[in-house]
Structure formats: structure tokens, C-alpha cells
Design a protein that fits this description.
This protein is mainly α. Helices cover about 85% and strands about 0% of the residues. The N and C termini lie far apart (about 70 Å).
Length: about 120
């Protein structure tokens, strides 16, 4: 009986922490001015918030096959979220001609950006 309450308490702590992470990600995505900072804040908060939410659900419901599926979802999201953020940042890096104000580029790429104009 006491073990269930301890598991419930840990589950609540994980869920509250996940909501704090999601809130921080939303605030970071809205407050940062530079697109790469926004994507970084959203990607990190999204990944950590998803992990804590799934951990809370796993702890709250016990262990079984559905929890194994949630673990696989966590693994899938941990691989795809950083890759998608990196892909979006690469698109911004190669298509924004005014990025030189924020990011120092290698010497050869500056000439390529001048040709794109």
C-alpha cells in the first residue's frame, strides 16, 4: 500500500517537471529573437518533457507491454527530435543570406552566399 503511494508521488513529480519543461520550451520559443535559439529551446524542452511525461505514465500504471511500447516511443523521439531540429537549422544556415550578422561562416561559404543574391 505504501509502495503505491510512493510510486504515485514520484509519478506526480515527473509529470509536474514535464509541464515545467514544456512551459520553458514554449517561453523560450516565443522570447528568443534568433531562429536557431528558438529551435534549440523547443527541441531540448520537447525531448525532456516527453521523457518525463512518459516516465510518469510508466510509473503511474505499473510495468507491462504498454510500458515497453512507451519506452520505444521515447527512444524514437530521442532520435528524431534532434535530427529534425538540426535539419531545420541547416536549412536556415544555407538559405538565410543575412545570417552573417549572427554566425561566423567558413571563408568559402561567404562567396557562395553572395552568388545566391
Amino acid at each position: 500500500m505504501i509502495g503505491e503511494w510512493i510510486r504515485f508521488g514520484i509519478s506526480c513529480i515527473c509529470m509536474i517537471s514535464a509541464m515545467i519543461c514544456f512551459t520553458a520550451a514554449v517561453l523560450g520559443a516565443n522570447r528568443f529573437g534568433f531562429i536557431m535559439n528558438r529551435l534549440h529551446a523547443a527541441g531540448i524542452g520537447d525531448t525532456l518533457g516527453l521523457f518525463l511525461t512518459a516516465l510518469s505514465l510508466i510509473l503511474g500504471t505499473g510495468f507491462g507491454l504498454p510500458q515497453v511500447k512507451m519506452c520505444l516511443i521515447i527512444v524514437f523521439m530521442w532520435f528524431t527530435s534532434p535530427v529534425s531540429s538540426h535539419f531545420l537549422i541547416q536549412i536556415e544556415y544555407f538559405t538565410n543570406p543575412e545570417l552573417y550578422r549572427h554566425v561566423k561562416r567558413p571563408m568559402g561559404e561567404e562567396a557562395d552566399m553572395e552568388e545566391m543574391k
